[in-house]
Each structure stands twice: as C-alpha cells, then as structure tokens.
Input
Amino acid sequence: MFLQLIKGRYFYCIAQEQQEKYLIVRGERGKILDSRGRILSMDRNVYSLFADPSRIKDKEA
Output
C-alpha cells in the first residue's frame, strides 16, 4: 500500500513503459469428425510470449 499511495503515479509510468499486450481472439470452429465420429481436426489454444531484447533496459532484472 505504501508504494501505491505515495509513489503510485511513478510506478504506474514505469509499468506502462515495460509492458505491451496484444490479444487476438478468433471464433472457435467446430471439430471435424470422420464417419465413425472420431476427431480428425479440432481447434487448439496456443499461447506465445515474445520479448524484444533491444527494448529491455535493465538486462540483469
């Protein structure tokens, strides 16, 4: 609480400079089944994370 109340704006600005967030949400498609009802193809969630080394100021942090 101390940091948030006393230096809240300071830490907010630092945090804004250190992060970017992209979120892409697409509609879910149905499963593709064979004639026996076995799944041939389906959607799967995939998560990825990327950090651009040229934008990292404190490499030891």
